[in-house]
């Protein structure tokens, strides 16, 4: 198979870089030939670079990812399109039942591996000759999304209450993009908030009071004015010799104090 070329379109540079770094891990032979920060740039770069695959953020200023896809599908040789989204369950449901793939931000390696496997199958010479993803399939999907009101709603900003999908944090001299699913707990630390993941501790400047407003309260529990813990990492609770309720974490030695204001969370455990 010849070298496969790809374009990544997203209006947030760090998310473009993050997706490219993930792709290098699961598909090292893929060559990312261009980045685009908006829909018009995506169209221009697609015309100039003729990528085989285009990763399209759905929500971009100007032309949306859906607008770009609608124009690309009318071209003489449409690229394979993977939509990237952080929103809209209706759109996700539609993608699930279509020939077109999608990724939820930030893309996990496991999910990206499935997308790459689909793309490789479609890019095989025999599949390409047969039209593995015919233009009609993409056109039908775009029509379905538009009929559901998705296309009209795309330019609107995400709701303020939408839960965080990732955390941009400092780790030494590096800045890391941490998927929210990898966070074990947050802890207030003087002027910073510490973000604990399996690989260690990073720092963000967001106060824990503001952070709480951006987290899914079903997935993250505040157990102290300075601590928020991911519910899936809670192994159980116990009382220490002072009578304080302590949260025990799965596979970690540290135990977190539950303040009296939050003890009710653990009634019955």
UniProtKB/TrEMBL annotation:
InterPro entries per the UniProt record, alphabetical: CheY-like_superfamily, LytTR_DNA-bd_dom, Sig_transdc_resp-reg_receiver, WalR-like
4-aspartylphosphate modifications at: 57
Molecular function per GO: phosphorelay response regulator activity; transcription cis-regulatory region binding
Residue ranges of every copy of the Response regulatory domain listed in the record: 5-120
Alphabetized UniProt keyword annotations: DNA-binding, Phosphoprotein
SMART domains for the chain: LytTR, REC
GO BP annotation list: regulation of DNA-templated transcription
Protein name as annotated: Response regulator
Organism lineage: Bacteria, Pseudomonadati, Pseudomonadota, Betaproteobacteria, Burkholderiales
């Amino acid at each position: 198979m010849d070298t496969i070329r790809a374009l990544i379109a997203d209006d947030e540079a760090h998310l473009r870089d993050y997706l490219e770094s993930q792709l290098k891990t699961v598909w090292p032979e893929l060559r990312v030939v261009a980045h685009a920060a908006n829909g018009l740039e995506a169209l221009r770069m697609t015309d100039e670079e003729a990528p085989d695959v285009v990763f399209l953020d759905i929500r971009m200023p100007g032309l949306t990812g859906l607008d770009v896809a609608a124009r690309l599908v009318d071209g003489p040789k449409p690229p394979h399109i993977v939509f990237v989204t952080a929103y809209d369950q209706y759109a996700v449901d539609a993608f699930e039942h279509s020939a077109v793939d999608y990724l939820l931000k930030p893309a996990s390696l496991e999910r990206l591996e499935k997308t790459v496997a689909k793309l490789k199958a479609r890019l095989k010479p025999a599949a390409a000759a047969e039209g593995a993803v015919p233009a009609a399939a993409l056109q039908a999907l775009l029509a379905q999304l538009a009929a559901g009101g998705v296309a009209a709603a795309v330019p609107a900003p995400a709701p303020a209450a939408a839960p965080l999908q990732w955390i941009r944090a400092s780790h030494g001299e590096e800045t890391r993009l941490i998927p929210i699913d990898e966070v074990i707990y947050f802890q207030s630390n003087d002027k910073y908030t510490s973000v604990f993941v399996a690989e260690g501790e990073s720092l963000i400047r967001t106060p824990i009071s503001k952070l709480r407003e951006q987290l899914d309260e079903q997935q993250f529990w505040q157990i102290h004015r300075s601590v928020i813990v991911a519910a899936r990492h809670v192994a159980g609770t116990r009382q220490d010799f002072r009578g304080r309720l302590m949260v025990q974490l799965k596979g970690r030695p540290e135990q977190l104090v539950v303040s009296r204001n939050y003890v009710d969370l653990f009634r019955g455990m």
